[in-house]
Amino acid sequence: MKNLRYNILLRPEPEGGFTVFVPALPGCITYGRNLSDARKMAKDAISGYLVSLRKHGESIPSDSESFMTSIEIGNSRNTRSAAYA
């Protein structure tokens, strides 16, 4: 069986630890106390998510074509209204 690879997004939390999001798997979110734990929890969450998809006869999504980038926007009060003008 071929290994699957999924991108994860790690968000540091103010109280410590990281919330982990898996963009290719909607609703697949977990938490880890540190980076190592967050990666371990992500693997566990992804595995559980894929088991559920298989159990329900759904296809397994690929994350091979997704990528992450960033954008920069102004930090003024008018940023939102300017975006919709």
From TrEMBL:
- Report the InterPro entries cross-referenced here: HicB-like, TA_system_antitoxin, TTHA1013/TTHA0281-like
Stretches of the chain forming a coiled coil according to its record: none
Q: Where is the signal peptide?
A: none
Q: Which residues form the HicB-like antitoxin of toxin-antitoxin system domain?
A: 6-64
Name any one Pfam family assigned in the record.
HicB_lk_antitox
Entry protein name: Antitoxin HicB
